[in-house]
Amino acid sequence: MTKDTTTSDGTAGSGAIDDADGSGVPNRIAEQFENIKRTRRRRALGWTGLLAFLAFATLQAFAATELLNPDARLETFTESLTGFFPITNYFGVIPFLDFGQYIQFIRQENLLYDPEIGRLLFQFPPNPTDIYVFFFQELGIFQIFGEAGITLAMGFVGTVLGFPFALVFGTLGSERVTPFPFNFIFRGTMSFIRAIPAIIWTLIFIPFLGLGPASAAIAIAFDTIGNLGRLFVDELEEIEDGPIEAMRTTGASKPQIVFFGMLSQVRTAFIAWTLYIFEINVRIGVTVGVIGAGGLGYVLTSQQNLLRFTEMMATLLAIFLLIISVELFSQRLRSRLRSDDVEMSIWELVTGFPRRMADSMLK
Protein backbone atom coordinates (compact mmCIF):
# COMPACT_ATOMS: atom_id res chain seq x y z
CA MET A 1 0.00 0.00 0.00
CA THR A 2 1.26 3.51 -0.84
CA LYS A 3 0.39 6.78 0.86
CA ASP A 4 0.32 10.09 -1.06
CA THR A 5 2.24 12.93 0.48
CA THR A 6 2.56 16.59 -0.35
CA THR A 7 5.93 18.25 -0.38
CA SER A 8 6.60 21.77 0.90
CA ASP A 9 6.25 23.19 -2.61
CA GLY A 10 2.80 21.65 -3.06
CA THR A 11 3.82 18.83 -5.42
CA ALA A 12 2.44 15.43 -4.81
CA GLY A 13 4.66 12.47 -4.14
CA SER A 14 4.40 8.97 -2.85
CA GLY A 15 6.45 7.24 -0.21
CA ALA A 16 6.67 3.49 0.10
CA ILE A 17 5.94 2.15 3.53
CA ASP A 18 5.84 -1.47 4.45
CA ASP A 19 2.79 -3.28 5.74
CA ALA A 20 1.85 -6.87 6.38
CA ASP A 21 0.97 -7.71 2.78
CA GLY A 22 3.74 -5.64 1.12
CA SER A 23 7.01 -6.81 -0.33
CA GLY A 24 8.88 -6.43 2.99
CA VAL A 25 12.16 -5.27 1.37
CA PRO A 26 12.98 -2.57 3.97
CA ASN A 27 12.36 -5.03 6.80
CA ARG A 28 14.65 -7.63 5.24
CA ILE A 29 17.43 -5.06 4.81
CA ALA A 30 17.07 -3.97 8.44
CA GLU A 31 17.05 -7.59 9.58
CA GLN A 32 20.18 -8.35 7.57
CA PHE A 33 21.88 -5.29 9.02
CA GLU A 34 21.01 -6.45 12.53
CA ASN A 35 22.40 -9.91 11.75
CA ILE A 36 25.68 -8.35 10.61
CA LYS A 37 25.91 -6.33 13.81
CA ARG A 38 25.18 -9.41 15.93
CA THR A 39 27.81 -11.39 14.05
CA ARG A 40 30.38 -8.68 14.62
CA ARG A 41 29.52 -8.54 18.31
CA ARG A 42 29.88 -12.30 18.60
CA ARG A 43 33.23 -12.17 16.84
CA ALA A 44 34.41 -9.35 19.08
CA LEU A 45 33.38 -11.32 22.15
CA GLY A 46 35.07 -14.42 20.78
CA TRP A 47 38.35 -12.60 20.11
CA THR A 48 38.18 -10.95 23.52
CA GLY A 49 37.65 -14.30 25.19
CA LEU A 50 40.49 -15.86 23.18
CA LEU A 51 42.91 -13.07 24.08
CA ALA A 52 41.89 -13.31 27.73
CA PHE A 53 42.48 -17.07 27.68
CA LEU A 54 45.90 -16.65 26.02
CA ALA A 55 46.88 -14.03 28.61
CA PHE A 56 45.75 -16.34 31.42
CA ALA A 57 47.55 -19.33 29.88
CA THR A 58 50.71 -17.25 29.41
CA LEU A 59 50.64 -16.26 33.06
CA GLN A 60 50.24 -19.90 34.04
CA ALA A 61 53.13 -20.90 31.74
CA PHE A 62 55.42 -18.26 33.26
CA ALA A 63 54.56 -19.61 36.70
CA ALA A 64 55.19 -23.22 35.60
CA THR A 65 58.62 -22.30 34.19
CA GLU A 66 59.46 -20.44 37.42
CA LEU A 67 60.07 -17.16 35.61
CA LEU A 68 57.80 -15.51 38.16
CA ASN A 69 59.87 -16.94 41.00
CA PRO A 70 61.46 -14.04 42.90
CA ASP A 71 64.50 -16.22 43.53
CA ALA A 72 65.19 -16.53 39.78
CA ARG A 73 68.61 -15.21 38.89
CA LEU A 74 67.48 -12.96 36.06
CA GLU A 75 69.15 -9.98 37.66
CA THR A 76 72.56 -11.65 37.25
CA PHE A 77 72.14 -12.07 33.50
CA THR A 78 74.06 -8.92 32.64
CA GLU A 79 76.83 -9.82 35.05
CA SER A 80 77.11 -13.30 33.57
CA LEU A 81 77.66 -11.93 30.06
CA THR A 82 81.26 -11.07 30.94
CA GLY A 83 81.95 -14.79 31.31
CA PHE A 84 80.82 -15.45 27.74
CA PHE A 85 82.21 -12.27 26.20
CA PRO A 86 85.68 -11.44 27.57
CA ILE A 87 86.44 -7.73 27.33
CA THR A 88 89.95 -6.33 26.91
CA ASN A 89 90.67 -2.64 27.39
CA TYR A 90 93.08 -1.53 24.70
CA PHE A 91 95.33 1.32 25.76
CA GLY A 92 93.67 0.92 29.12
CA VAL A 93 90.61 2.84 27.91
CA ILE A 94 88.91 1.36 24.83
CA PRO A 95 86.96 -1.88 25.57
CA PHE A 96 86.96 -4.55 22.86
CA LEU A 97 85.73 -8.12 22.68
CA ASP A 98 88.78 -10.34 22.96
CA PHE A 99 88.37 -12.73 20.03
CA GLY A 100 91.88 -13.95 20.64
CA GLN A 101 90.70 -16.11 23.54
CA TYR A 102 88.10 -17.74 21.29
CA ILE A 103 90.63 -18.44 18.54
CA GLN A 104 93.15 -19.81 21.01
CA PHE A 105 90.67 -22.33 22.41
CA ILE A 106 89.42 -23.34 18.93
CA ARG A 107 93.00 -24.06 17.86
CA GLN A 108 93.96 -25.73 21.13
CA GLU A 109 91.04 -28.20 21.05
CA ASN A 110 91.08 -28.72 17.25
CA LEU A 111 87.46 -27.69 16.94
CA LEU A 112 87.62 -26.75 13.26
CA TYR A 113 90.95 -28.17 12.06
CA ASP A 114 93.19 -31.05 13.12
CA PRO A 115 96.81 -30.22 12.22
CA GLU A 116 97.96 -33.84 12.71
CA ILE A 117 95.65 -34.97 9.90
CA GLY A 118 96.02 -31.79 7.88
CA ARG A 119 99.79 -32.00 7.61
CA LEU A 120 99.39 -35.16 5.54
CA LEU A 121 97.53 -33.19 2.89
CA PHE A 122 98.82 -29.63 3.13
CA GLN A 123 102.56 -29.77 2.67
CA PHE A 124 104.99 -28.48 0.12
CA PRO A 125 106.26 -30.16 -1.87
CA PRO A 126 103.34 -32.64 -1.89
CA ASN A 127 104.17 -36.15 -0.72
CA PRO A 128 102.21 -38.81 -2.66
CA THR A 129 102.65 -41.30 0.19
CA ASP A 130 101.15 -38.95 2.77
CA ILE A 131 98.30 -38.06 0.43
CA TYR A 132 97.56 -41.77 0.00
CA VAL A 133 97.63 -42.22 3.78
CA PHE A 134 95.27 -39.25 4.23
CA PHE A 135 92.60 -40.57 1.84
CA PHE A 136 92.84 -44.35 2.24
CA GLN A 137 94.38 -45.12 5.64
CA GLU A 138 93.46 -42.24 7.92
CA LEU A 139 90.21 -41.62 5.99
CA GLY A 140 90.68 -38.02 6.94
CA ILE A 141 88.17 -36.13 4.80
CA PHE A 142 86.04 -35.50 7.87
CA GLN A 143 88.73 -35.92 10.53
CA ILE A 144 90.70 -33.00 9.15
CA PHE A 145 87.96 -30.71 10.48
CA GLY A 146 88.55 -31.88 14.05
CA GLU A 147 85.54 -31.99 16.35
CA ALA A 148 83.44 -30.19 13.74
CA GLY A 149 84.24 -33.02 11.32
CA ILE A 150 82.84 -35.58 13.77
CA THR A 151 79.60 -33.61 14.04
CA LEU A 152 79.46 -33.21 10.27
CA ALA A 153 80.11 -36.93 9.76
CA MET A 154 77.26 -37.88 12.12
CA GLY A 155 74.81 -35.75 10.14
CA PHE A 156 76.14 -37.05 6.81
CA VAL A 157 76.01 -40.74 7.80
CA GLY A 158 72.53 -40.29 9.23
CA THR A 159 71.33 -38.72 5.98
CA VAL A 160 72.97 -41.36 3.76
CA LEU A 161 71.62 -44.30 5.79
CA GLY A 162 68.17 -42.81 6.28
CA PHE A 163 67.55 -41.65 2.70
CA PRO A 164 66.86 -45.05 1.02
CA PHE A 165 64.49 -46.11 3.80
CA ALA A 166 62.77 -42.71 3.70
CA LEU A 167 62.38 -43.08 -0.07
CA VAL A 168 60.79 -46.53 0.26
CA PHE A 169 58.53 -45.63 3.19
CA GLY A 170 57.62 -42.27 1.68
CA THR A 171 56.71 -43.82 -1.68
CA LEU A 172 54.72 -46.72 -0.22
CA GLY A 173 53.06 -44.36 2.26
CA SER A 174 51.42 -42.39 -0.53
CA GLU A 175 47.85 -43.37 -1.35
CA ARG A 176 48.70 -42.97 -5.04
CA VAL A 177 51.05 -45.96 -4.75
CA THR A 178 49.62 -48.09 -1.93
CA PRO A 179 45.83 -48.21 -1.53
CA PHE A 180 44.12 -47.20 1.68
CA PRO A 181 44.40 -48.46 4.43
CA PHE A 182 47.62 -50.36 3.69
CA ASN A 183 49.54 -47.13 3.11
CA PHE A 184 48.95 -46.24 6.76
CA ILE A 185 51.25 -49.09 7.77
CA PHE A 186 54.14 -47.07 6.39
CA ARG A 187 52.73 -43.72 7.49
CA GLY A 188 52.20 -45.05 11.00
CA THR A 189 55.77 -46.34 11.12
CA MET A 190 57.10 -42.93 10.13
CA SER A 191 54.82 -41.24 12.65
CA PHE A 192 56.14 -43.53 15.38
CA ILE A 193 59.73 -42.66 14.42
CA ARG A 194 58.97 -38.93 14.40
CA ALA A 195 57.30 -39.15 17.80
CA ILE A 196 60.65 -40.08 19.39
CA PRO A 197 63.30 -37.30 19.25
CA ALA A 198 66.73 -38.12 17.89
CA ILE A 199 68.34 -37.62 21.29
CA ILE A 200 66.07 -40.35 22.71
CA TRP A 201 66.94 -42.66 19.81
CA THR A 202 70.59 -42.10 20.75
CA LEU A 203 69.89 -43.23 24.31
CA ILE A 204 68.12 -46.31 22.92
CA PHE A 205 71.13 -47.30 20.78
CA ILE A 206 73.77 -46.70 23.45
CA PRO A 207 73.42 -50.25 24.92
CA PHE A 208 74.06 -51.70 21.43
CA LEU A 209 76.75 -49.40 20.03
CA GLY A 210 78.09 -47.62 23.09
CA LEU A 211 78.13 -43.91 23.87
CA GLY A 212 79.76 -42.29 20.88
CA PRO A 213 79.34 -41.09 17.30
CA ALA A 214 78.16 -44.54 16.09
CA SER A 215 74.99 -44.57 18.18
CA ALA A 216 74.37 -40.91 17.31
CA ALA A 217 74.70 -41.56 13.57
CA ILE A 218 72.22 -44.46 13.65
CA ALA A 219 69.82 -42.39 15.75
CA ILE A 220 70.00 -39.57 13.20
CA ALA A 221 69.35 -42.11 10.44
CA PHE A 222 66.16 -43.25 12.19
CA ASP A 223 65.08 -39.64 12.63
CA THR A 224 65.73 -39.05 8.92
CA ILE A 225 63.42 -41.90 7.96
CA GLY A 226 60.51 -40.32 9.80
CA ASN A 227 61.06 -36.69 8.79
CA LEU A 228 62.27 -37.10 5.22
CA GLY A 229 59.77 -39.87 4.47
CA ARG A 230 56.90 -37.61 5.52
CA LEU A 231 58.13 -34.87 3.16
CA PHE A 232 58.32 -37.41 0.33
CA VAL A 233 54.72 -38.48 0.98
CA ASP A 234 53.50 -34.89 0.82
CA GLU A 235 55.31 -34.28 -2.46
CA LEU A 236 53.84 -37.42 -4.07
CA GLU A 237 50.33 -36.36 -3.07
CA GLU A 238 50.69 -33.14 -5.10
CA ILE A 239 51.95 -34.54 -8.42
CA GLU A 240 50.12 -34.09 -11.73
CA ASP A 241 47.77 -36.84 -12.91
CA GLY A 242 48.39 -36.25 -16.62
CA PRO A 243 51.66 -38.21 -17.02
CA ILE A 244 50.28 -41.03 -14.88
CA GLU A 245 47.12 -41.39 -16.97
CA ALA A 246 49.18 -41.23 -20.17
CA MET A 247 51.36 -44.12 -19.03
CA ARG A 248 48.33 -46.17 -18.01
CA THR A 249 46.84 -45.81 -21.48
CA THR A 250 50.06 -47.20 -22.96
CA GLY A 251 49.80 -50.32 -20.79
CA ALA A 252 52.67 -49.49 -18.40
CA SER A 253 53.02 -51.67 -15.32
CA LYS A 254 52.61 -50.35 -11.77
CA PRO A 255 56.39 -50.19 -11.06
CA GLN A 256 56.92 -48.31 -14.33
CA ILE A 257 54.18 -45.84 -13.43
CA VAL A 258 55.71 -45.28 -10.00
CA PHE A 259 59.29 -44.82 -11.21
CA PHE A 260 58.74 -42.99 -14.49
CA GLY A 261 55.36 -41.35 -13.95
CA MET A 262 55.53 -40.32 -10.27
CA LEU A 263 59.09 -40.20 -9.00
CA SER A 264 60.30 -38.46 -12.15
CA GLN A 265 58.02 -35.52 -11.32
CA VAL A 266 59.39 -35.08 -7.80
CA ARG A 267 63.06 -35.87 -8.39
CA THR A 268 64.20 -32.27 -7.97
CA ALA A 269 62.00 -31.72 -4.92
CA PHE A 270 63.28 -34.94 -3.31
CA ILE A 271 66.90 -33.82 -3.72
CA ALA A 272 66.12 -30.38 -2.31
CA TRP A 273 64.34 -31.85 0.72
CA THR A 274 67.21 -34.28 1.30
CA LEU A 275 69.69 -31.40 1.39
CA TYR A 276 67.42 -29.56 3.81
CA ILE A 277 67.23 -32.59 6.10
CA PHE A 278 71.03 -32.86 5.91
CA GLU A 279 71.27 -29.33 7.33
CA ILE A 280 68.92 -30.33 10.14
CA ASN A 281 70.86 -33.53 10.80
CA VAL A 282 74.09 -31.58 11.32
CA ARG A 283 72.28 -29.51 13.95
CA ILE A 284 70.97 -32.73 15.50
CA GLY A 285 74.58 -33.95 15.57
CA VAL A 286 75.39 -31.02 17.83
CA THR A 287 72.39 -31.81 20.05
CA VAL A 288 73.15 -35.50 20.54
CA GLY A 289 76.77 -34.62 21.20
CA VAL A 290 75.64 -32.88 24.37
CA ILE A 291 74.84 -36.24 26.00
CA GLY A 292 78.34 -37.55 25.20
CA ALA A 293 78.08 -38.71 21.60
CA GLY A 294 81.11 -36.67 20.58
CA GLY A 295 81.79 -33.70 18.33
CA LEU A 296 81.20 -30.06 19.11
CA GLY A 297 78.22 -30.80 21.30
CA TYR A 298 80.35 -32.87 23.67
CA VAL A 299 82.98 -30.13 23.87
CA LEU A 300 80.23 -27.61 24.59
CA THR A 301 78.73 -29.53 27.50
CA SER A 302 82.21 -30.32 28.88
CA GLN A 303 83.10 -26.64 29.08
CA GLN A 304 79.70 -25.84 30.56
CA ASN A 305 80.21 -28.41 33.30
CA LEU A 306 83.59 -26.85 34.08
CA LEU A 307 81.98 -23.37 34.17
CA ARG A 308 84.42 -22.18 31.50
CA PHE A 309 82.01 -19.86 29.77
CA THR A 310 84.58 -18.20 27.53
CA GLU A 311 85.57 -21.59 26.09
CA MET A 312 81.88 -22.45 25.86
CA MET A 313 81.29 -19.32 23.77
CA ALA A 314 84.23 -20.24 21.54
CA THR A 315 82.61 -23.64 20.94
CA LEU A 316 79.34 -21.92 20.06
CA LEU A 317 81.25 -19.81 17.56
CA ALA A 318 82.68 -22.99 16.00
CA ILE A 319 79.18 -24.47 15.84
CA PHE A 320 77.93 -21.35 14.07
CA LEU A 321 80.74 -21.54 11.51
CA LEU A 322 79.98 -25.21 10.85
CA ILE A 323 76.24 -24.68 10.44
CA ILE A 324 76.57 -21.62 8.21
CA SER A 325 79.10 -23.47 6.01
CA VAL A 326 76.73 -26.43 5.60
CA GLU A 327 73.86 -24.07 4.75
CA LEU A 328 75.94 -22.25 2.13
CA PHE A 329 76.96 -25.55 0.57
CA SER A 330 73.36 -26.81 0.59
CA GLN A 331 72.05 -23.54 -0.83
CA ARG A 332 74.61 -23.73 -3.61
CA LEU A 333 73.49 -27.24 -4.58
CA ARG A 334 69.81 -26.31 -4.44
CA SER A 335 70.43 -23.31 -6.68
CA ARG A 336 71.94 -25.68 -9.23
CA LEU A 337 68.65 -27.58 -9.26
CA ARG A 338 66.68 -24.43 -10.15
CA SER A 339 67.38 -23.62 -13.77
CA ASP A 340 65.83 -20.16 -13.51
CA ASP A 341 68.37 -18.99 -10.93
CA VAL A 342 71.60 -17.26 -11.88
CA GLU A 343 74.44 -19.54 -10.94
CA MET A 344 76.93 -18.14 -8.41
CA SER A 345 80.00 -19.70 -6.92
CA ILE A 346 80.34 -20.04 -3.16
CA TRP A 347 82.90 -17.22 -3.19
CA GLU A 348 80.48 -14.95 -5.04
CA LEU A 349 77.71 -16.01 -2.66
CA VAL A 350 79.74 -14.94 0.38
CA THR A 351 81.52 -11.84 -0.92
CA GLY A 352 78.46 -10.54 -2.76
CA PHE A 353 76.20 -10.67 0.30
CA PRO A 354 76.74 -7.00 1.35
CA ARG A 355 75.95 -5.78 -2.16
CA ARG A 356 72.81 -7.93 -2.40
CA MET A 357 71.70 -6.74 1.01
CA ALA A 358 72.19 -3.10 -0.01
CA ASP A 359 70.28 -3.64 -3.28
CA SER A 360 67.43 -5.26 -1.36
CA MET A 361 67.21 -2.33 1.09
CA LEU A 362 67.10 0.22 -1.75
CA LYS A 363 64.17 -1.44 -3.50
TrEMBL record:
Tree of life domain: Archaea
Subcellular location: Cell membrane
UniProt GO MF annotations: ABC-type phosphonate transporter activity
Gene3D superfamilies: MetI-like (1.10.3720.10)
Residue intervals of the ABC transmembrane type-1 domain: 148-330
Residues spanning the membrane: 44-63, 148-172, 192-222, 284-300, 312-329
Recorded topology in the membrane: Multi-pass membrane protein
InterPro entries: MetI-like, MetI-like_sf, PhnE/PtxC
Record key words, sorted: Cell membrane, Membrane, Transmembrane, Transmembrane helix, Transport
SUPFAM superfamilies: MetI-like (SSF161098)
Main location: membrane
Disordered: annotated span: 1-25
Entry-linked PROSITE patterns: ABC_TM1
Biased composition (Low complexity): 1-17
Keyword Transcription regulation: no
One GO cellular component, as annotated: plasma membrane
Keyword Calcium part of the UniProt annotation: no
Similarity annotation: Belongs to the binding-protein-dependent transport system permease family.
The protein's name in its UniProt record: Phosphonate ABC transporter, inner membrane subunit
Organism: Halorubrum lacusprofundi (strain ATCC 49239 / DSM 5036 / JCM 8891 / ACAM 34)
